[in-house]
Design brief:
By secondary structure, the chain is an alpha+beta fold. It folds into two domains: about 210 residues, Alpha-lytic protease prodomain-like (Up-down Bundle), CATH 1.20.1510; about 80 residues, Alpha-Beta Plaits (2-Layer Sandwich). It has eight helices and four strands. The protein has a four-stranded mixed β-sheet. The chain is elongated, with a radius of gyration of 27 Å. About 40% of the residues are buried.
Length: about 325
């Protein structure tokens, strides 16, 4: 990732983190003042989205700080550790809010939340949609699947706010209609959002597990990568090609054979061309590790009579 792309990606993550922390504080305060269980649960949902963005940002920084070795591997590890911490907190707090909402419903609700809760809900929907549009368009422009996934978390957060809006409006309407049973819509909405929080915590755990495990691509996907390499000038044979998924990325390990009589610089240029072709034609490929071997030094490359004579081209094609 270039410095410019990294800065744009990091800025987008910070927008999501700061925006969701602000929304969590706003909804938490208004939820406490208005007495809305649903709004308090929605505040936790914003915290979970901010935690997800933090995990992704940590992964990006880990990749930048490790220019040598396998940065994507370290990135996946950093994301996994952060995701596990966040997911455990989400599961514990989400389950606690679930029990709290159930207790409220069981013991009865004698009053609806205050109308001030609507202010925080409307602001949440507007800001969530704004963050979604920004991150989604930037992710599409940069072909960054992590940003697109982060953007979709904002869209899901907006849907949770719609659930809260229905619960609060329904409970308030019960006050005007004289129907006390409608008061239960607020804690019911809170219960539903808390379940969504627990679900997000569970999914974060599963994603972190998947990121630490390497999944080898299917044969048909590898064959497509193989065809891309085989037509590149200077590549005589592809001895080995292994493509594995790591989180949202695909990492390719490859061994190619080249003319044994070419220079080191020419071999390096061929390897560079292979890497660029794979990453350009297959946008899901994020890193390529290449080992260059000399092809079998027999006909037509070997010259047993005069080693100073070389009538053959340094390239096969």
């Amino acid at each position: 990732m270039t410095e410019e792309r990294f800065q744009k990606t990091e800025f987008a993550y910070w927008i999501g983190i700061i925006g969701n922390i602000f929304l969590a504080a706003l909804k938490g305060v208004f939820g406490y003042i208005s007495g809305s269980k649903a709004l308090i649960a929605d505040a936790l949902y914003s915290v979970s989205t901010a935690g997800h963005s933090c995990a992704m940002l940590m992964g990006q920084r880990a990749a930048k700080q490790q220019p040598d070795g396998n940065p994507l591997y370290k990135q996946g590890k950093a994301e996994s550790i952060a995701a596990i911490i966040v997911s455990v907190l989400l599961l514990v707090i989400g389950i606690e809010i679930c029990f709290s909402s159930v207790k409220t419903i069981y013991y009865g609700v004698d009053s609806p939340p205050k109308a001030t809760a609507l202010i925080a809900i409307v602001l949440s929907i507007i800001l969530k949609e704004t963050m979604f549009q920004y991150q989604y368009r930037l992710g599409k422009k940069m072909s960054n699947q992590d940003l697109i996934a982060s953007a979709r978390k904002h869209r899901l957060g907006m849907y949770s706010s719609f659930v809260v809006l229905i619960g609060v409006v329904g409970a308030l309407s019960g006050n005007y209609l004289g129907n006390n049973y409608l008061y239960y819509l607020d804690p019911l909405a809170g219960l539903l959002v808390a379940v969504l929080v627990v679900r997000m915590g569970y999914r974060l755990v599963m994603e972190s597990i998947n990121q630490t495990l390497e999944h080898v691509l299917h044969d048909e996907d590898v064959a497509e990568l193989m065809r891309t390499v085989q037509v590149i000038k200077g590549v005589i044979a592809v001895e080995y090609l292994r493509a594995r998924e790591q989180g949202h990325y695909v990492i390719v390990d490859i061994k190619i054979s080249v003319n044994p009589r070419i220079s080191v610089l020419e071999g390096h240029d061929i390897a560079k061309t292979v890497k660029q072709a794979l990453m350009k034609r297959h946008i899901h490929v994020a890193e390529v590790y290449i080992h260059v071997n000399p092809y079998d030094a027999g006909y037509p490359y070997k010259n047993n009579i005069d080693l100073e004579q070389d009538q053959f081209s340094s390239m096969l094609h």
